[in-house]
Amino acid sequence: MRSTISTLPLFLSIVAAASNGTAANNSTAASNNTAECNFSSIRWGLCDEAKVNGTLPMDCATLRVPLDYSDPASKATILLELARVPSAMQPSKGSIQFNFGGPGATGRGTLAAQAAVLRNLTGGQYDLIAFDPRGTGDTLPFLCVQDDVEATTVLQGQASSNTTEYGVGRIWARGTIDTARCQSTMNETGKYVNTPFGARDLMSVVDALNEDGMLRYWGLSYGTTLGATVAAMFPNRIDKLILDGVQNPHEYYHALADFEEWTDSDKVFAGIFSTCIDAGGDLCPLASLNLTGPELEGRTWHLLEQLKSRPIPIGQYLIDYPLLKGFIQQAIYGPAGWPGLVTMLSFLFTNQTAGLEAIATSLVPDSTTTPLDAIKLSQALLGIHCGDRTARAATLDDFQPTIDRLYNISTIMGDATIGTMSACAQWSIEPAERFQFPSSSSSPQIATSNPILIVGNTFDGHTPLISAYNVSETFEESVVMEVRGYGHASLGLPSSCTWRTVSEYFSAGTVPEVGRICEVEAEPYGNTTWADIFGVEVGGNGGGVSAGVPRMVRL
Fold this sequence. Notes:
- By secondary structure, the protein is of the alpha/beta class.
- It is built from 17 helices and 12 strands.
- The strands form 2 sheets. Strands 1, 2, 3, 4, 5, 6, 7, 10, 11 and 12 form a 10-stranded mixed beta sheet that branches. The chain has a two-stranded antiparallel sheet with strand order 8-9.
- Helix 5 (222-233) links the parallel strand 6 and strand 7 (238-246).
- The relative contact order is 0.15.
């Protein structure tokens, strides 16, 4: 289903030019309001359970917002689809909006899955709201392929860049094709799919809620880039804002690749094996092989090299380098994926064919998932990320230093997003608005109306702790809280300290002291969940990050 674009009544106009009078598509500051008036109010009603189905009561609504905030003369609009979890305590103190990452992940379904955990963490005093961002779901979907045949072609073209000596060249050429396809099919609407417009959508929701005109927000992963952007565009309208699992927005907007995000990936990979030994054979089967953590890691690397030329046939499946490497890269997100990985490695190391076939079967997409469905997240990621990025490379030779740098930063993750970065380097759809986010952490600081709470895990293989500190340098009086554990963002690490800190922040605006480190109760290969921390049954996905922060997609 395509998003419906409509026009506004003639008497309404959009006010989206920068407050300093510069053109909106080259703005360095944003007007304090997204519009002179609300284009539609929010009327909450029943949710479509096929799209939004959680364990807590929820209601849904649509909100009409400008298609193009950069053109005051435009009357075209789109509908944002919102979901709300009402506060446990009435009357509500207001609303908190969420973005769960990607970019390209839908918001409503994830809120439904994580609602019970999030309501407890935030103190139960606020309504929780999420919408499907531009480019996702039915909200101006960014989809460059038109049917399953085209989607299958794209999926079959995805490959690892370091399987053969020709891999990098093949991926660069694939990026050329993908970029041309998107330019042909999405040029008209793709320019309205970008993070600055996403930030303005957040503020349109704030205005339509008719509360206090201030933003309360919790962003995870890419949601931290969206959060940093809205804080930079509307610094005087920030009430409480959490950036959790922090992406480096300076690189996101201005570099040829997200180099910093892989800083700690190799440490996390090593941690899979060292914590396995600590957990013991009852919880981690690899520990029964009587090898050290480094020996298990070395054996895994040896197996990967073998699979490049000697893939293993298991029944009707093939265990090859891309399959195992991709499985490992997904596991880098956090301990929720480690038991499955170490079980597979244990079967491979001990030649347990039956067990391998069962795992291989589980990795095959569900038969009800069409190729078009399978590619939607990666297509949305292209539209949002590539449109936001300013850096370009004309040739593979120009791009090769970027590839080399990625390989040098991380052996396990260096090749993970080269396909995405290759397409972005050749991107030709220009966004309707380019907000000039600071190019580095050494740029002048931005003063927000209230302090921002920034959360980073000690061992995060996707958004390292250093990125949290880099973003903190961008915003005056922001505070970094470190969560001492493995995983991507704090939702995957049940911790009473995190609960207390987040709850106090939202209830009273209290930021922790500088240097706050929260220990976690959840150990890798253990079974501690948020329900254990809260002391009550929370329902839904009570302990995992799997539904809270979307997995990386390979392009």
